[in-house]
Amino acid sequence: MSPRNLPFPDDPARPPESHSELLKALEAGHLVALPTETCYGFAARADHSKALQALASLKERPAGQAFTWHVGHPDLARQIAPWPALVGRLADAFWPGPLTLVLPANPERAKAMSLDAILHEGNLGLRMPEHWATAELLARAPFPVVMSSANSSGAPPLVSAQEVAEQFGDRIYAIGDGGTTEIGGSSSILSIGPNRFEVLRSGRISLEDLQSKAGLRLLFVCTGNTCRSPMAEGIARDSIAKALGTRPGEVSNFGFQVGSAGVYASLGSPVSPESVDVLAEWDVDIKTHTSTPSELAMARRLDRIYCLTQSHLAALSHTLPPEQAQQLELLSPSGRSIPDPIGGSLDLYRETRDVIAKVINERMAEWV
């Protein structure tokens, strides 16, 4: 039996009349093929055990290999999985588009949203395709939908409705015919979790591009870059690492780069012994730090430049080009300047360390 071939243009000005028919087919447990920006995908209800079995059989997938929940809007994805700032930046950069995110899922929410059948070791794959008609259908569906590339396991994904009909027409109910897909290939699959930023499948988006959007390039600026800003750098790197479940030296795996500089710093001066000692009390090691002038540090690509005092902010505001000056802000969200402990007692350095740690903690939700 030939599948129903239904017009499915990627054009909001020409909404397809086939949405209702395709949704009824999915609701009944049938398999349908829908276009994405990369290739066609086989779609099935995620809460219909026989539909999932039929999809696994069609794909010749081994038992236990997970399917990906496809959504028509990011708000749906936010309801099922933790959505920290890092994940939000990836979704903002690459959704809709050829990126599948594999995230730890809340099991209770998964069950409430009828997604527990597609959890795999506590994780859930999510994707928002860049095809208007498909995304609109997914947004309208009163049940969750999984999709998997239209091909047999190991074969190239199919990029036209005609190819799907020729190879799988007798095994699917209908095809949303959107012509030939825009870019071809497969989506990149990125797994994110504690101590995990792993590309499970290389696709249209490189690891370097994923890291560049996920993490942030942070610079902390004080006067001489020998006490306050090195402490801020060390504490920030350590705090980010703990939030990511990794070690401080490995935050770059998630795309984070953390540095410090001084408005009036010379190049290569050692960090103050007091700063080293008070951070060592927290097992944060900054003893190899040497100073960097701010103009040298800011020649690199940065996302945020955090000044320790209003005077540092004012000094840099007058010297930076407008587009870079927009990255400047005080480290303290409340606008508090953090005084210089240089020449003070070890207790004064501890007080400075504690203030820096407090304001960094206030920033963490923006970063990670």
| Structural class assignment | alpha/beta
Strand content bin: 15-25%
Q: Output the radius of gyration.
A: 26 Å
CATH class of the largest domain: Alpha Beta
Describe the structure.
This protein is an alpha/beta fold. It has 2 domains: 4-205, DHBP synthase; 215-367, 3-Layer(aba) Sandwich (Rossmann fold). The protein is 35% helix and 18% strand. It is built from 14 helices and 14 strands. The protein has helices at residues 19-27, 49-59, 74-78, 85-94, 107-112, 132-140, 161-168, 207-214, 228-244, 273-280, 294-297, 310-317, 322-325, 346-367, and strands at 4-7, 32-35, 40-45, 68-70, 99-104, 123-127, 145-149, 174-177, 188-193, 196-201, 217-222, 257-262, 304-307, 328-330. The strands form 2 sheets. It has a 10-stranded mixed β-sheet, with helices on both faces. A 4-stranded parallel β-sheet has the order 12-11-13-14, sandwiched between helices. A hairpin with a 2-residue loop joins strand 9 (188-193) and strand 10 (196-201). Helix 10 (273-280) packs across helix 14 (346-367). The longest helix has 22 residues, at 346-367. The protein is elongated and about 85 Å long. The N and C termini lie far apart (51 Å).
